[in-house]
UniProtKB/TrEMBL annotation:
Protein name: alanine--tRNA ligase
Origin species: Candidatus Sungiibacteriota bacterium
Alphabetical UniProt keywords: Aminoacyl-tRNA synthetase, ATP-binding, Ligase, Nucleotide-binding, Protein biosynthesis, RNA-binding, tRNA-binding
Domain of life: Bacteria
Similarity comment: family membership: Belongs to the class-II aminoacyl-tRNA synthetase family.
């Protein structure tokens, strides 16, 4: 069964079982605790915790999706037979609609009846000091004729929170055999029974002061890797032998090492999907991840003597093979190609010099490696690969530590230069790396306050901020709203922001205790972590208050400094959350 048919079968099966099919959310999540979307359940977190109502937003307590996902933790492992950066995650989710019995029966029916695949074995949670053994799941599997039920510990079959906190619980995994005779986990069914106020790592470590709390309404979160399902269905030995990768790998010259072929194929997919979701190459956040992938591919182009048109044809193939299911790829096709060529132009100027410099150095230290990255743009992966034994002393942990040290030095310089705003260069809401960039993000930051206020004036008080991200190129603002905005509504919002700019309102600052500030009517981010005393920024005059919000700066002194405000895009960010991208001119 080809991958396009597998997607259709997944959608048809769960729709036929009463699930609302929800489109994939962006790879750039509204959840500020994670850099990129790593799992299908991410867009549904508010429905497990009771912050959002699934019946109001989806007309059902049960949903299903095929989610674009990206895991940065696997970049160094790509090249073997199993690891990927970008992947597709099929999942069904229930927010109090059903629990263990129906989840297991649905999974069993889909695998054995729809896909007609034999199950090799399943796993259940064997219990711990915190949670008893999952005997209920064992009994359900046995009733379906699956008797090879294996017990595993909390490290393997107790799913922790996504990000810094969230729902969690025991899981049951389904294994099938691939063409090489290996048992492969293809589906993980998570039974969310608890909320944990920390990360998965903290949960496994038993961090003092952080305890599992029972969820009021238990839920279900399942995830099945489409690439792995395709491998089993197509009787392939690994994911790279499936129709998702084989055509890409075959387009590369025969003499290229198989491991490098897999890396290129994986990275090209990741590059295309990141660009389609608005990520741009940079040295910050998700842009840094994109740049790492792109430059690694470009280094291989040079070292393996791969003609540029080969990578261009792979990009074209990804866009068109996936474009029917993910229409944003077709919509952004020209932008994707333009950005890749622009990055090739930037990197090409320094690549050859960087590689020559790398060859000159004897034993390469961590500081040498970081200098090669900072000066010539050579990613860690490329330095390790080309440097070979000369880089034995360079580890990912050491390189990342050097990177963070550099950030701290840069941050201290910016704080000294610009009045101690506490502006972060690479994390958080604001990102600026120079005096000129800081001026732009300051204008955009104040404009985002005006945008928040304008949205509430046009759409009503139900609008709630769900995250923002500001760079020198644009502001990105996520807010709770159940539908797409009309062109008239977008025009009214933009007009209101520009009205506030033209009025040349003064920005006034008042410091108050947190509770008093919230009672004053000032807007605040519901997930924000605020100190006991906060600053309230008000835009207006003695006759009109346009905006009032808790914040930490920086801002312009008067709104006329912002310039002209323009909305360039309004789109879905995740379930029930809209996203606006805007610029100032």
């Amino acid at each position: 069964m080809d991958s396009a048919t597998i997607r259709k079968q997944c959608i048809q099966f769960f729709a036929g079982q009463g699930h609302t099919i929800v489109p994939s959310s962006s790879l750039v999540p509204s959840d500020p605790s994670v850099l990129l979307t790593t799992a299908g359940m991410q867009q549904f977190k508010p429905y497990y915790t009771g912050e959002a109502d699934p019946e109001k937003d989806f007309g059902s307590k049960n949903t299903a999706s095929i989610q674009k996902s990206f895991r940065t933790s696997d970049i160094d492992e790509v090249g073997d037979e199993t690891h990927l950066t970008f992947f597709e995650m099929v999942g069904n989710f229930s927010f109090g609609g059903y629990f263990k019995e129906e989840t297991i029966k649905l999974a069993h029916e889909f695998i054995t009846k729809v896909m007609e695949l034999p199950i090799s074995y399943v796993t259940i949670f064997k219990g711990s000091d915190m949670v008893p053994k999952d005997e209920e799941s064992r009994q359900i599997w046995n009733s379906l004729g699956v008797n090879d039920v294996r017990e595993e510990d909390i490290q393997d079959v107790f799913w922790g929170p996504t990000g810094n906190s969230g729902p969690c619980g025991p899981t049951t995994e389904i294994y099938c055999k691939n063409a090489a005779g290996k048992d492969v986990e293809i589906w993980n069914c998570v039974f969310n029974q608890f909320f944990y106020p920390g990360s998965r790592e903290e949960l496994l470590a038993g961090t003092p002061g952080k305890e599992l709390e029972p969820l009021t309404t238990p839920g279900v979160d399942t995830g099945m890797g489409l690439e792995r399902l395709a491998m089993i269905s197509q009787n392939a030995k690994n994911i790279f032998d499936t129709d998702l990768f084989h055509p890409l790998i075959q387009s590369l010259p025969a003499g290229v090492d198989p491991r490098k072929k897999r890396i290129i194929a994986d990275h090209v997919r990741g590059i295309v999907f990141l660009l389609a979701d608005g990520v741009r190459p940079s040295n910050k956040g998700a842009g840094y991840i994109l740049r790492r992938l792109a430059r690694r591919v470009m280094v291989y182009e040079k070292t393996e003597i791969i003609p540029a048109h080969v990578i261009q044809s792979m990009v074209h193939e990804v866009i068109h093979d996936y474009g029917e299911f993910y229409p944003e790829l077709l919509k952004e096709a020209d932008v994707i190609r333009t950005e890749i060529e622009a990055e090739r132009g930037k990197f090409g100027k320094t690549l050859e010099r960087g590689m020559k410099e790398l060859e000159k150095i004897g034993q390469i230290s961590v500081s040498d490696a970081f200098r090669l990255y900072e000066t010539y743009g050579l990613p860690y992966e490329v330095i390790k690969e080309i440097g070979g034994e000369k880089t034995d002393d360079v580890t990912r942990e050491g390189f990342d530590a050097e990177f963070l040290k550099h950030q701290e030095i840069s941050r201290a310089g910016v704080e000294k230069k610009f009045g101690g705003h506490g502006l972060l260069l690479d994390t958080g809401e604001l990102k600026a790396g120079s005096e000129e960039e800081l001026k732009i993000v300051t204008r955009l930051h104040t404009a985002t306050h005006l945008l928040n206020a304008a949205l509430r004036k046009v759409l009503g008080d139900s609008v709630e901020q769900r995250g923002s991200d500001i760079t020198a190129e644009r502001t990105r603002f996520d807010f709770l709203f159940p539908r797409k905005l009309t062109s008239d509504e977008i025009a009214k919002v933009e007009e209101l922001v520009n009205y506030a700019i033209q009025k040349d309102f003064l920005m006034t600052i008042q410091e108050l205790p947190l509770d008093e500030a919230k009672k004053s009517g000032a807007l605040f981010f519901y997930k924000g972590h605020y100190p006991e005393r906060v600053k309230v920024y008000t835009v207006g005059n003695e006759f009109e208050t346009f905006s009032k919000e808790l914040c930490g700066g920086p801002h312009v002194a008067r709104t006329s400094e912002i310039g002209k405000f323009k909305i360039v895009k309004e789109e879905a960010s995740s379930a029930g959350v809209r996203r606006i991208r805007a610029i100032v001119l």
